[in-house]
Amino acid sequence: MTAPLLTPLVVALLIALAQGASVGVEIINGKKAQKGSLQYMASVQKDGKHKCGGFLISPDFVLTAAHCDKGKNMSVVLGSHDIQDGNRNALRIPVREVIKPKEYIKPGGGSDIMLLKLSKKPKLSKNVKTIKIPRKNKTIGSNIKCTVAGWGSTGKEPFVTDLQIVDVSTINRDICQKQWNGVLPENTICAGGYETKNGACQGDSGGPLVCSNLAVGIVSFNTGTCSYPNKPNVYTQISKFVPWIKKYVKNLPLS
């Protein structure tokens, strides 16, 4: 099999990633999520250990980032903000199938999105719910207040067992493009991190960017330090992938 061809955009962004950017995020300057909220959140795990965030978009599919593919023995944990071992409220379901866009190469390529088909459908309840995603090509304006949540590091700890959430605002694409030295991939949204101390850093990729109760983005990559000098956090823009998602997820509610 021949090696995949890297476009100049991907090469440039991979260089940027190597020089100080990183995939995955932690929640910085956030707070513990309110009990009974964010019931769509999923902990994506490998061999029983948390690796990434994700979110339930239908009874049998979790959406996350493509770079969260950890191979065999993946599972998701639903139904609880506390993902520590022994939590009786947490529902663990093995992943049956991993589905990624054929054009995905690495996080810098702009197709950092993945569907996880679950081995069984969880019973939807007060603790387990789905979240809607946007209709095809729906755009998100600048300076829109949104949230991002996850179990990654807080900057003080390598990871947390209780779900954290923080407010972030969307950033104008031209500003984001400039701060990423002109190598921002297509089909992405920027929010948080730029001239702020709120947002995402290493430890919890794949979680949703939620604006007005709609999952519009998937945490993809950011700067490597969490000090956020000028680099915005970058998310995969879900609305650009709706036709691809609908190939696999039937009766998908859109907004």
Summarize the structure.
Helices cover 11% and strands 35% of the residues.
Question: How would you characterize the overall build of this protein?
Answer:
With 255 residues, the protein is mainly beta. The chain folds into 2 domains: 39-130 and 241-248, Thrombin, subunit H, CATH 2.40.10.10; 145-239, Trypsin-like serine proteases (Thrombin, subunit H, Beta Barrel), CATH 2.40.10. The chain is built from 3 helices and 16 strands. The protein has helices at 8-20, 173-179, 242-248; strands at 21-23, 27-28, 31-32, 41-46, 49-58, 61-64, 74-78, 91-99, 114-118, 145-152, 159-169, 188-190, 199-200, 208-211, 214-223, 234-237. Strands 1, 3, 10, 11, 12, 14, 15 and 16 form an 8-stranded antiparallel beta sheet that branches. A 6-stranded antiparallel beta barrel has the order 4-5-6-9-8-7. A hairpin with a 2-residue loop joins strand 14 and strand 15 (214-223). The N and C termini lie far apart (41 Å). It comes from Conger conger (Conger eel).
